Amino acid sequence: MKALTETRPKPMIEVAGRPLVDHAMEQLGDMAQRVANLHYLPDMLEKHLSSAGLVTVFEETLLETGGGLKNALPYFNSDAVFTMNTDAVWKGPQAARILSNAWKPDKMDALLLVVPKSRAHAHLGSGDFELEPSGQIRRGRNYIYTGMQILKTAPVAAIEETHFSLNRVWEDLFAQGRIYGVEYSGHWCDVGHPEGIAIAEAMLKDC
Predict the structure, then answer these.
(1) Under DSSP, is residue 5 helix (H, G, I), strand (E, B) or coil?
(2) Which end of the chain has fewer CB atoms at under 10 Å, N or C?
(3) What is the C-alpha to C-alpha distance for residues 132 and 183, in angstroms, rounded to an integer?
(4) Domain boundaries along the sequence of the chain
(5) pLDDT the model gives residue 29
(6) Which CATH architecture has domain 10-206?
(7) What 8-state DSSP symbol labels residue 52?
């Protein structure tokens, strides 16, 4: 986000008059346990989130997506958690509800929320996954990962390292046939770069 993050962390960048982190929390609903990992300029974000009742965990060094989740596991008392990125804006049904309705823990260790390219805005990548009729996913290009999932904690806790990507967890689950996807039926915008702000605001207004 370049100059936009010189004086504030990325989750506090505003889209349509609201910080990105507030757009994210709206998609989680009224979950009892909510934990946020903080690193860059943490004081501003901690103050904002504490008023919403969130627990904050500070990372002195970046632990990557998997390591950050492992670091936060002691704050949860369930065997599966929602994880999400804050650099996106949504228009449509609540994301957490879609995941909850599709979650089948007897056969799933991970359930990723994906969106087809036709309803993904401002995304610069080529695509992430294919969604099979069975609900399982595989690497591909027709669906974009929205940054939100339900993930069992055991595969994360089992990794001995402290710094690792969630991709490492996913690869193990691909091999076991335990990773699935569900399609988001609304519109989703990537706000991981400055141009995404105006595109997200247009999406919220026009789609």
Answers:
(1) helix
(2) C
(3) 11
(4) 10-206
(5) 85
(6) Alpha-Beta Complex (3.90)
(7) T
- d(CA 58, CA 123) in angstroms, rounded, equals 28
DSSP 8-state class, residue 123: -
Q: Which two tokens stand for residue 138?
A: 């595989």
pTM of the shown model = 0.95
Round the average pLDDT of the chain to a whole number and report it: 94
Position 16 scores a pLDDT of 97
Pairing outcome for strands 179-183 and 143-152: unpaired
Long-range CB contact pairs, 35-41, < 8 A, 24+: 35/72, 35/75, 35/76, 37/63, 37/68, 37/69, 37/71, 37/72, 38/9, 39/9, 40/5, 40/9, 40/10, 41/5, 41/7, 41/8, 41/9
pLDDT tens digits along 144-202 = 999 999 999 999 999 999 999 999 999 999 999 999 999 999 999 999 999 999 999 99
Six-digit token string for 65: 């997506």
**CB neighbourhood size of 133 (10 A):** 5
Tell me phi and psi for residue 122, to 5 degrees: 65, 15
Asked if residue 81 lies in contact with residue 153, where contact means CB atoms within 8 angstroms, the answer is yes
